[in-house]
Amino acid sequence: MPRVLRHALLVLLPVVAVFAILPGVYSNHLLLFNFIVFMMLAQGVNVIYGFTGYLPFGYVGFFGAGAYGFSLMVLHLHAPPLAALLVGAAAAVTLGLLLTPLFRLSGAYFSIANLAAALAVFQVVSNPALEEITKGPYGISLSGVFNPTLAYATALTLLAATLALVIYLRNSHFGMALQAIREDPISAGMAGINVVRERIIAWLLSALIAGFAGGVFAWYVSVFYPETVFSGEFTIFAIVFALFGGNATVIGPILGVIILYGIYNAVGISTPQYFQLIYGALIMGLVLFLPNGLVSLLQRWGIDVP
Amino acid sequence: MSLDPLLTVDGLVKRFGGFRALDGLSFTLKAGEILGLVGPNGSGKTTCINVISGLYTPDGGTIRFEGRPIGGLASHRLVHLGINRTFQIPRPFLGLSVRENVEIATAYGRNRRSASDVNTLLSALDLVAFAEKPAGELNSAHQKMLDLARALATGPRLLLVDELAAGLNPAELERVGAKLKELAQSGIALLVVEHLMGFMDQITDRVIVMNAGKEIFEGSLANAVRNAQVVEVFLGGAYAA
Amino acid sequence: MLVYSLLAGLLFGLYFSLIGLGLNLVFGVMRIVNLAHGDILMLGAFLAFWLFTLFAINPVPAIAVAFAVFVIVGLPLYYLLVPRLLRAKDPEMLSFILFFGLSQVIEAAATIAFGTSERSIPGGELGAAIAAVARVFTGHAVENGPVEIFGQTFPAAWVASGLASGFAVLLVYIYLYRTKLGTLTRAVMVNREEALATGINVHRVSAIAFGIGLGLAAVAGVFAPFMLGSITPAMGAEVTVTSFAVIVIGSLGNPLGTVLGGVIYGVSYMLMQSYYSSWANLLPYVLLIAILLVRPSGLLGRQVRRA
Predict the structure, then answer these.
(1) Arithmetic mean of pLDDT over chain C
(2) Fewer C-beta within 10 Å: chain B N or C terminus?
(3) Domain ranges in chain C?
(4) Is B2 contained in some domain?
(5) The predicted structure's pLDDT at residue C251
(6) What is the pTM of this model?
């Protein structure tokens, strides 16, 4: 069986099936929805970090751009949700395009600049001076489009599309080229790869994923403050989930989300400080002892991980 | 085979701050020719390769490939035009397998080639045994062969070879030398930078001796060692007399 | 208003230079992004607070205590974390995450230990120290209160921290450029592998630099209750981001660059506060990105980071 099909059967179908059925048996739909959002975000980080090696410490900027793009379309133009969603995603991609000069920077500089950019977008959006347009620090309240069922279904579809994209990356020459760029951009150039262009494509794909996630999040909750959708927590969780599971694979980020976000929801909300302590220690242990994630253990034993 | 030179370098200049690594270098290279590039350390040999292969932009002079100027073009575009190079210290994609290393070059190089070409290349360079291993597990001699495979996978018409011989044992040297000559016979032009004079003598038709960023001699290797200026540049003035 | 903004910006900026100094040293020597820098500062602030509240120790001697404690803490922490980290394929990026984890651990532990309420130290404490110094220099009694410069009044604490920052920068400069250990440190900053090849004990040099970096952060923390208002366990994050802006604007590895970065940041911030206050928070981020794109080596730097 071709590898693509095998990966799709092993990962995409089960995940989508599980999250399609669960709302029927488990009543906390918001939690399930959040799982879907984080799975998308972790894959988004996977695309840019796992495949090209750039760490997007300002990833939440795209999420927030998607959320606000969606919301402004609904607020000011009374757009139907699906159209507004597309605009939200486009907003995130536009932000990504604006940030492409950051690729001239390497390593830590890129991450810091990306973080600064996300914080800057947050400052602009939440500024009282722009209250007319963005509602400033008072937050968004969308009446008329509130439809958690449809939003959930859309989110699940978007997750399926995201997983399909990552499966494609895992099995295509494009994905291989991205990994080559990550290993050695000069050699990659001499293999005929247009390093700048491929990197930007990966970046924009990553922004697109977060943009859709943000837009569908705004649709589902319909009420939020700027701090909510620009919270650094989204970036951190997405990065840690992706890292914990393992980069440049399809299943790594999913494992990361299920295990870590699962633990967080089971234990962490009631005793936030103790959870923060353990989480922090877990992150440190991860970096020191298992930097390539959980799936690297499997790969070490020769298993071809999807 | 056309009689016009495939590659013409004219007055090439490359500066790093105040230092002129290339100071008006000029030479030509025909298809099917193997041109040697020798010179003392720091004379600009690797810089010459770096500029022609697009790693650096020239600060002056021209480079023409098949008649068109290529100075300043990005590496991947040069690859698509038919130029490639090996690295003095090989830089394979360590996380990918040996096969994938070659595969990516066939996929993105000139004339997208098929999977069977990957196998042909791997066997020609004795890499079949390691095909599925991660490139990082190879020893340096095999990594050099992998680097050469990567360059050849893109179907170049001009190949710049940067000190391939270092670290190879005599048997490997002979195989590599024969391979390079084979490539030349098939019409590829080769520019070979080397320190190992025996190897150079074996494979090149003519050599250019560089010093301080410029060519100071052009001709056969045998005549080069008799040239007073060449001797002086390599061994010092006391020997030139 | 302009003169006030400029002078306040200068003092405030000097404080941020002090904050950035430690971070600059660590990043310059190890290429490690210490995202826990702000949290170390927070610990230094709490150390000063507890020394004052429990033992009535004035903040000035607390400076020395804070420095010593965190240098001593820094050395084993380095050996625990960094050598393993540097063996990975991508240490710069992983250091981000590692030290982020550390910052979470520190913040959580501090919240559990100290609670979330805000603490502060009366500004008069630092003022007393200034008054004492002034009395020594001028020979007559100086009142403990606001200090006047060029006709503008500033809290004595601000002047004290400005002086302390300048002094700290001087000490770091002397360390780097006039001591043998400092020269070795600069060698490691420029090229770690070559330094190793010439026989320098790179880990020892780095560990000491790391300890000093943490010590400087703690010293900045002692001044935090006066410069930044009240202190809480969660204050570290914002400080870290701002200090990154400062060191990037200045340049890497050069303590004078950090001073320049801090002053530019401080003055711009104060000017923004006076004239366009609602947009003032945007400033550090915009400055950071602008500098990184226009002159990535920083205003004084020579090391260029290009991908």
Answers:
(1) 83
(2) C
(3) 21-233
(4) no
(5) 74
(6) 0.87
